[in-house]
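FAQ: What does the model actually see?

It sees only this:
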Amino acid sequence: MGPLVFPFVFTIHILNHSAMSVDAKRNMFQDNIGFLFIGIWICTMIGFHRTYTIFFPQFTGFQWEQHFHGAVLMSWFAMLIVQPFLIRFGKNSLHRTIGKLGYVIAPLVCFSIFLVLRMGYYRDLPKFPEHEVLRDMALPVPNIIVFGTFFILAMVNRRDSFVHMRYMIGTSLIMIGPGLGRALEIYGGFTMPQSKLVAYGLGEIIATLMLWNDFGKGSNVKPMLTVLSVLLLDHFIWISRESAAWQAFAKWFAAHAF
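And it is asked to produce this:
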């Protein structure tokens, strides 16, 4: 279970250096954020091992949408992990060049989530009551919107590295849930509600600690406050998945989007 708490441990490690100067702490944060992305990637790989990668290379019973989704997500993680290390080692030109791939990969991430969502909807609808299928849409539908929002905000602020990096962190925090949730259920014996509570909570805790760090340094708190607020809204939607409002929206979404 050690790798599953890596993102939280990394954040505590960064925030414990309170005696350092503002510039030193800022550089340390930027230089080491790639390790947070690595930790989230490890959680994702652990979570999807028994439900996906263990079936390599035959992958019997899986659909092409699932393979496409996995490939696109791995591409996004690769870019997330590489980019801060390029900055750390002064490869700014290469960083900008690779960053342009985000304009292709990010929309594909959203599209791949949509494809898996649609596939799961038509697969599950004949097997389960409609309200359960609509309920389960409360995870992927907000993920599309939240991921897309964070990416757009990151690109709008691409010339401000401080703000840009925090919204890119937001795109990684939204990815904690699926992998960590599965890992806690498979290896930790957690129930689904318990695993979702921990997964959502971890992302919110990391965002809160980073917000507190920015506040303590007198830095611009708006980016991380925005990230935290959106994550909390995402969590609220999941909690409200049984509500009449969500059921009505999900049914409308399925009727018009699928």
